[in-house]
Amino acid sequence: MANDPKIIAIANQKGGVGKTTTTINLGAALAEQNKRVLLIDLDPQGNASTGLGIDHDKRDATTYDLLSGDVTLSEAVQKTSVDHLSIIPATTDLSSADLELVDNAKRSFLLRDVLRASSAEALDFDYILIDCPPSLNILTVNAMVAAQSIIVPLQSEFFALEGLSQLILTVRDVRQTANPDLRIEGIALTMYDSRNNLSLQVEDDARENMGDMVFKTVIPRNVRLSEAPSFAIPVLTYDSGSKGSTAYRSLAKELIEKEKKMRAA
Ligand SMILES: Nc1ncnc2c1ncn2[C@@H]1O[C@H](COP(=O)(O)OP(=O)(O)OP(=O)(O)O)[C@@H](O)[C@H]1O
Ligand SMILES: [Mg+2]
Question: Of the bound ligands, which one is closest to the alpha carbon of residue 49?
């Protein structure tokens, strides 16, 4: 019998820290391990959709339509060029202004409710990864309410840790109100440069303060990772032997191992 999908939000309110890059490439790396993966683009910028080749004219059924109840999960899901990797694309419709109109009591629960209501369709997937916008707005809260855990990409640069306390407060808040089981799956250091003292220092700080919560795998700064989206494919397809590909494969394996341990415990 199929297990429930594991739902993970990729979140950090700081912009440009590697959320979308992590969503796409961790997703592709899990798919490569024969996991069935659904990406939900929850960012009105639609970067994950573009990075996986869903052109604007192919975004008829979007995350916004899903949250509005206008389409079902299966109607919104599109295949990508990568086997086992599907996506629900986003457009600027998703800007939270529209969602703010929804009645107060319900608006944090839209994604959770839609996934619950589509539980049979969601069983087609082993993982659902949610790419969040760079904000702790209602969209990110929806992701945190719907998810079992969150992965926080942390850019290996100065001030990286500054926003983290605010993020952790939001997680705590969601735990106390809407989703008591929400966990931080892990913090992933991104754009890491081992020749740069600052990267080493951010890593030391993160491991000292957050301990095991920080993934052992670090994602190096790698130009292949930044080139791949312009070809609308994950780095694993674009340059399978690149350092970026190796790192995201390692992160996927670490995630799978972590889960095995948790289940055994
Ligand atoms: N490890 C990396 N090495 C080199 N470039 C990277 C790496 N990770 C991300 N980038 C590049 O940095 C930029 C920001 O990355 P990305 O879009 O993944 O961040 P984000 O957190 O999703 O941004 P936003 O907050 O706007 O959604 C992109 O141009 C991306 O290609
Ligand atoms: Mg992004």
Answer: 2
